[in-house]
Amino acid sequence: MEELDITAAKENLPQVLGFVGSRLDEVKCADKVRMQIEIAVEEVFVNIASYAYDPEAGSATIRVEISGDPLTVTMSFIDCGRPYDPLAKPDPDLKRRFGERKNGGLGIFMTKKSMDEIAYEYKDGKNILTLKKNIIREGHTNG
Amino acid sequence: MDIGMNKSGNELTISLEGRLDTLTSPELEKKLDSALDGIKKLTFDLKGLKYISSAGLRVLAAAMDIMEDRGEMFVANANDDVRDVFEITGFIEDLNMI
Q1: Do B53 and A42 count as a contact with CB atoms less than 8 A apart?
Q2: Which residue, A23, A108, B5, B94, has most beta carbons within 10 Å?
Q3: Would you kindly state where each structural domain of chain A is located, as residue ranges?
Q4: Considering only CB atoms, which chain B residues are within 8 Å of A32?
Q5: Is residue A6 predicted with pLDDT exceeding 70?
Q6: The CATH number of domain B2-93, selected from 3.30.2020.10, 3.40.50.1980, 3.30.750.24, 3.40.50.450
Q7: Average pLDDT over residues A134-141
Q8: Residue A88, φ and ψ in degrees, nearest 5
């Protein structure tokens, strides 16, 4: 398991993606799965950066572990901001035109669709969002 | 991200290359503000677009809103991964894909 502690600010997104991406490089993760993982990382980290600590800045911890058979990436996003369960947010109404949907919920919806499992807990004053995704390696078309 | 603009009369093609995400979407949004004046046909060429997040979708949706009263908007050459994002979000139903 590897861990990154970083200020929860949007401009740190490239560092967070780089941290997760180098783990994915090590196992030669296929591009399609990588994009799905990157979407989840962006949506979750930007959510923390935007809402967890507003107006003051705080930090986020990102843990990544890749293990198992089938190979699975497990990522945890931990912050000490206000308690917030993103999974409680209703999914956007897909029947409505995109521009007419009420704001919000799109990022976490994309995260849910991109990942295989998501769990939220609030423990010891911390929001902990854990995401799991089976990894397909380069050269394998399906999984 | 690279943003290319090719204007011909009242038609504008915007080519996007790279990543349309939280950090790059504001740049596109800003450019759209002035670029869409007098445009009746807007085409986004996504051939070089490798990644799109919800922030990117919102900018495309905003452009679609603006174009609704003025003419047409098309999205061309999206790769499979970007198209998947359009599909899972239901955005594909609203887009004119070519």
Answers
A1: yes
A2: A108
A3: 2-134
A4: 80-81, 84
A5: yes
A6: 3.30.750.24
A7: 87
A8: -75, -15
Q: Is the ipTM of this complex over 0.90?
A: yes
User: In this complex, which of B51, B65, B88 lies closest to A113 when CB atoms are compared?
Assistant: B88
Place of tokens 């699975």: A72
Chain B residues with beta carbon closer than 8 angstroms to that of A31 = 81
Tokens of A62: 């990102």
Q: Which of B21, B17, B70 lies closest to B46, judged by CA?
A: B17
- CB atoms under 10 Å from CB of B2, counted, come to 9
**Domain A2-134: assigned CATH number:** 3.30.565.10
Model pTM score: 0.94
Inspect the interface and report whether the beta carbons of B58 and A94 lie closer than 8 Å: no
* B23/A101: higher pLDDT: B23
Which residues of chain A are within 8 Å of residue B83 when distances are taken between CB atoms?
A: none
pLDDT tens-digit readout, B34-90: 899 999 999 999 999 999 999 999 999 999 999 998 999 999 999 999 999 999 999
What pLDDT is attached to residue A141?
62
Residue A136 has pLDDT above 80, yes or no: yes
Joined together, the tokens standing for residue B27 give 């740049």
Across the interface, of B65, B81, B88, the residue whose CB is closest to A110 is B88
Residues from chain A that touch B91, judged by Cβ atoms under 8 A, are 98
In chain B, what are the helix, strand and coil shares in percent, each to the nearest 5? Answer: 40, 35, 25
Farthest CA pair distance, chain A: 46
